[in-house]
Amino acid sequence: MTGIILQARLDSTRLPGKAMLPLDGKPLVYRVMEALNHIPANIRIIACPEDAFSSFKPLAQEAGFHIFHGPKEDVLERYCQVVRQFSITRIIRATGDNPFVFTDAASFINSEAISLNADYAGYSGLPCGAGVESVSGSALLHAAEEAASSYEREHVCPYLYNHGEKFLLHRPLAPFHWQGRDLRLTIDTQEDYEKAVQLYDMLKNEPCRYDGAVILKNKWRLSGNETQPCNNCSRN
């Protein structure tokens, strides 16, 4: 069973309370869930720490997501608890500060991961905040048994992609029409948020506003470039 697991929290050192900041009248975390609903999956769960549960619960219900709370700092274990509770075999991992996920790219990389039976899959060369990771549930449980550093526990997937001798990794360069590794679509600072408000306003009337090429076109317009320049992206 494929499950989208969205990790989200309320506190943020660089942009406090960003999950609840408005984006066209709805909290940011709701807009992220709204976008993720356009990626095929059997189940969708927002996985948060306990201190965010009551704030996120009504938003999750409105977006059609289940909600689960687990360890605050050990996000890897939080994911594993979700995997066990919902019997998830394939995870699409997303984070709560990325409302401009390329949903078509996410669908493609997940399909590739399934066809290859990859333990971990993710495109390189995408704009920051545009991608997801596809991970097998068994590989994530394996990682949780062995990952020891706080960085590996907090960021969920580093143990997988740093141990290619143990896991089957698929990390291709994204197709050209999705590339833009120098662009920021994530929301981590006040400046990111202000630009996101502008971009969301540009996209909201686009019929295909969750497609990567459409998001990129409008991001380049916002940056003062009508077309994407040629770009020889290296792997992230």
- Strand residue percentage: 15-25%
Beta strands, count: 9
Instruction: Give the CA-based shape.
Output: globular
Assigned CATH class: Alpha Beta
CATH superfamily: Spore Coat Polysaccharide Biosynthesis Protein SpsA, Chain A
CA-CA gap between termini = 29 Å
- Main sheet record: 7 strands, mixed
Major β-sheet strand ordering: 5-4-1-6-8-7-9
Topology pattern, helix = H, strand = E: EEEHEHEHEHEEHHHEHH
Helix/sheet category: alpha/beta
CATH topology: Spore Coat Polysaccharide Biosynthesis Protein SpsA, Chain A
CATH architectural label: Alpha-Beta Complex
How many individual domains? 1
- Average residue-wise pLDDT: 94
Short description:
The protein contains nine helices and nine strands.
What does this structure look like?
- The protein is α/β, with parallel strands linked by helices and 236 residues long.
- The chain has a single domain (2-222), classed as Spore Coat Polysaccharide Biosynthesis Protein SpsA, Chain A.
- Helices cover 40% and strands 15% of the residues.
- The chain has nine helices and nine strands.
- It has helices at 28-36, 50-63, 75-86, 103-116, 137-146, 150-155, 158-161, 190-203, 212-222, and strands spanning 2-7, 22-23, 26-27, 43-49, 66-70, 90-95, 120-121, 133-136, 169-170.
- The strands form two sheets. A seven-stranded mixed β-sheet has the order 5-4-1-6-8-7-9.
- A hairpin with a 2-residue loop joins β2 (22-23) and β3 (26-27).
- α1 (28-36) packs across α2, α3 (75-86) crosses α5 (137-146) and α8 (190-203) packs across α9 (212-222).
- The longest helix has 14 residues, at 50-63.
- It is globular, with a radius of gyration of 17 Å.
